Structures are given as structure tokens and as C-alpha cells.
Amino acid sequence: MLHCMDTPVVHDATPVLVRRIRPEDHDALRVFYARLSDESRRTRFLGPASGIEADQSEYFCTPDHAHREGFVAVAGPFQERLIGHVCVEPDGADAAEIAVAVADDAQGRGIGRTLVEAAVSWAREDGIGTLTATMLAGNPAIQRLLSGLGLPSTARPIGAGVVEIRIDLGAGDRAAA
């Protein structure tokens, strides 16, 4: 089982930590995206990409923690290998967009879900009521992940083989009240 927010755990005999992204993750984030398979980069960026540029990495690694946030999953005895990234970007007054990627050799092990749960928790604390995610229609894994969070969600095609999922973050709070 993975835990987030600086709680290390062992996963597949490798310690994995999900934590907030930091400015010093800049180089590791570029390496992470460059090492993804062509298909993983295509599904993350909705088209061909060789990775991210230095300015994109710097942007991702310096969220303001008030309107933008990011989390990374790091693995190894000293958390030396970045194996996942999720970012949350403003998308209107009460909404944010979420995007996630996990290293090819770490997919299917709950890392993406733990990253997304960390992002959902932060978004709720920040007062965000809706998360949106844009993905290729041919990416059922991310669609299952986002629609399987136990939160109300709707998916709609937006054209060119692209789907948008909207997740209502306020529903859980209203149900608990």
C-alpha cells in the first residue's frame, strides 16, 4: 500500500514516497518524462512528445501551492528515482485541471491512484469544487482511474478522439454532512 505526503512505504520491495514536488526535482522531472515510452508520453501530452523542456520542468517544479500544485512519487532506498508526477492547474474560479503520468515499469501498481488521491485531497483543501482531466479516448486506464475514485464524475467526448472527465469534489463533503 502506498501513502502520500512524505510517508515512505515499501511497494514491490522498493520504498516509494509520494510528496509535494520541489524546485530541486527539476532535473529528475525532465529525466522522468524523457524515459517514458513514446506511447506513455503520447497519452500524457495527447500527441507525440519527446519529453518536457527546461522551462516546463521549472514551471511544474515551482507551484505556488495556493492555485497550482504538484506531487511526485519517488522510489529507491533514498528516493532517488522519480516514478510518477501529477499536476493540478487552475481551470476557472472553482475548478482545476489534473494530469498524471507514471513510469512504464511502475504502472498498474497503485502509484497513479495515490498521486491522484493526493491531488484530490489538496484540491479539496484549496476549495476547488471540480477537477477536469483531458485524455485520449483510447486511454482506458486513466479513464478507469479517474472514474473509480468514488466521486461523481462525467465523461464527454470533446472531439478529435479526446475525452474530458469532470469530477465533483464537493459531493463527498455534502454526503458526509
What this model shows, in words?
- The protein is α+β, with helices and mostly antiparallel strands.
- The chain has one domain: Aminopeptidase, CATH 3.40.630.
- 32% of the residues lie in helices and 32% in strands.
- It has 6 helices and 8 strands, in the order ββαααβββαβαββα.
- The chain has helices at 26-35, 38-45, 54-61, 111-125, 140-147, 170-176, and strands at residues 9-11, 14-20, 69-75, 81-90, 95-102, 130-136, 153-159, 162-168.
- The chain has an 8-stranded mixed β-sheet with strand order 1-2-3-4-5-6-8-7, with helices on both faces.
- Strand 7 and strand 8 form a beta hairpin.
- Helix 1 crosses helix 3 (54-61).
- The longest helix has 15 residues, at 111-125.
- The radius of gyration is 15 Å and the shape is globular.
- The two termini are 29 Å apart.
- Residues 172-177 have low confidence and may be disordered.
